[in-house]
Design a protein that fits this description.
13 helices, alpha+beta
Length: 381
C-alpha cells in the first residue's frame, strides 16, 4: 500500500472512463435505434472522467470547489448509468427520485465542505448518495439483465454498491475531520480501486449487452417474417423436422395445418397493398393467439400460412382449424379492416407418410379441397 499513489490512480481511472465514454457514443451511431441507453452510458463515463479531472486539480481549485463540483459530476454520472440501463432494458425511469436523492447528497456535501468542514461528512454523503443510486441501478439489472454482459453488470453494480456503503459508514471511525482525499488507507484504497475498475467494467458490460442484443435481433430477422413476426418457412421446416424425427422415434402424434386467406388478391386490388399488409399482420396475430405455446406458426408464402401442432390428432386438428376460421371471420371487421375468411387444410402424421414433405403435401391437398368446397372451412385428410 506504500507504493499506491492515489492521485495517479484516479487520473488513470478518469482517462479510462473518458475513452470508454467516447467508444460508447461512437457505438450508438452504428447500432440500430431500437437499442437505447448507449448515449446515457457514454455520457456517464464522460461525467465520471470530468469528476476525476477535477479531483486531480484539487491543489489548483481548492478543496471546497473540488469537493462540491466533483461530487455533482459523480452523482450525475451514476444517475446516467442508471438511466442508460433503464432505457436499455425498457424499464420505467424514476429520474425524479434519483434527482431528489442526488440533490440531498450534494447539499450534504456543500454543508460539510463550506458550513461545517468535515471530511467524514463529505465522504459519507457522497458514498451513500452514490450507493443509493447504484442500488436502484442494481435492482433494474438484477430483474432484467441476461447473458454474459448482464451478469457482468450485476456483479459490477452489486460490488460497487457494497463498497460504497462500506465507505460511507466506515469513514466515521477510520478517518478524521481533517483527513485529506488521498490519504492512504485500506478502505480508501478499495474505494478508489473499485471506482476505477467499475468505470472500465461498466463500459465493457455496456458493449457486451449491446452486442448480444444486436446478435439476437439478427437471429430474429433470420428466422422471423419481417411483416407478420411469425416464423419464416425455413425456420418452420427446421422445427417441423425435429418434430418429425420425434414422431418417427416414439410415434408422438403431430399435425400440420395449411391456412390460406380467401380472396386475398381482392383485398389488395380494392384497398391497396398497405391495407393488405395490415390484414396479414392482424391475421397472423389472431392465429398466434389461438395456438398453444409449443405450436409453431409460419408464413409459408404470400397469404398462405402453416401451423405445426405437436401432440395433435385428427379431432384436435379439426377443432384448431374451426377456431381459426371462426375467429378470423368474426374479428377482422372489428379491427377496422376488410372482412376476410380463411380456408384450412390439415393432415395428421400416419404410417403412410414417408417424409415431412409428404405430410405437408397432404395438408396442402386438404386445403385445396377446402377451397373447392366453398372456402371458409376446414378439411382434415
Amino acid at each position: 500500500m506504500h507504493d499506491f499513489h492515489a492521485p495517479t490512480f484516479v487520473l488513470i481511472a478518469g482517462l479510462v472512463s473518458a475513452l470508454m465514454g467516447w467508444v460508447l457514443l461512437a457505438l450508438r451511431r452504428n447500432y440500430p435505434p431500437d437499442i437505447e441507453g448507449l448515449r446515457e452510458w457514454g455520457l456517464a463515463c464522460l461525467a465520471c472522467a470530468c469528476a476525476t479531472l477535477i479531483y486531480k486539480l484539487e491543489t489548483l481549485l481548492g478543496r471546497s470547489i473540488t469537493s462540491i463540483s466533483g461530487a455533482a459530476l459523480m452523482l450525475l454520472g451514476f444517475v446516467l448509468f442508471y438511466s442508460g440501463s433503464a432505457r436499455f432494458w425498457q424499464q420505467r425511469e424514476h429520474l425524479r427520485w434519483m434527482a431528489a436523492w442526488s440533490v440531498v447528497a450534494w447539499v450534504a456535501m456543500v454543508i460539510f465542505s463550506v458550513v461545517w468542514p468535515d471530511y467524514r461528512g463529505r465522504a459519507s454523503a457522497l458514498a451513500l448518495g452514490l450507493a443509493g443510486i447504484t442500488a436502484a441501478h442494481f435492482w433494474v439489472v438484477w430483474r432484467h439483465a441476461k447473458g454474459l454482459g448482464g451478469a457482468l453488470v450485476k456483479a459490477v453494480t452489486g460490488v460497487q454498491c457494497a463498497v460504497l456503503v462500506l465507505r460511507g459508514i466506515s469513514t466515521w471511525w477510520v478517518d478524521a475531520p481533517d483527513t485529506t482525499r488521498f490519504a492512504p488507507g485500506l478502505i480508501q484504497t478499495i474505494y478508489l480501486a473499485t471506482f476505477a475498475i467499475s468505470a472500465l467494467m461498466m463500459s465493457v458490460s455496456a458493449q457486451l449487452v449491446s452486442s448480444e442484443r444486436v446478435r439476437r435481433m439478427l437471429e430474429n430477422l433470420a428466422t422471423h417474417d419481417s411483416l407478420t413476426g411469425v416464423l419464416v418457412r425455413r425456420a418452420w421446416l427446421q422445427a417441423a423436422g425435429r418434430e418429425w424425427a420425434r414422431w418417427q422415434r416414439n410415434g408422438s402424434p403431430m399435425a400440420v395445418l395449411m391456412l390460406d386467406i380467401d380472396h386475398f388478391k381482392r383485398v389488395n386490388d380494392q384497398h391497396g397493398h398497405a391495407v393488405g399488409d395490415a390484414v396479414l399482420k392482424h391475421f397472423a396475430q389472431e392465429v398466434r393467439d389461438l395456438l398453444r405455446p409449443f405450436d409453431r406458426l409460419a408464413r409459408y408464402g404470400g397469404e398462405e400460412f402453416i401451423v405445426l401442432a405437436p401432440d395433435t390428432q385428427n379431432e384436435g386438428a379439426l377443432g384448431m382449424g374451426q377456431r381459426i376460421c371462426q375467429t378470423v371471420a368474426d374479428r377482422a371487421a372489428q379491427a377496422g379492416l376488410p372482412a376476410v375468411t380463411v380456408s384450412v387444410g390439415a393432415a395428421v402424421a400416419d404410417a403412410g407418410d414417408t417424409s415431412l414433405d409428404a405430410l405437408v403435401a397432404r395438408a396442402d391437398a386438404a386445403l385445396y379441397r377446402a377451397k373447392q368446397a366453398g372456402r371458409n372451412r376446414v378439411v382434415v385428410d
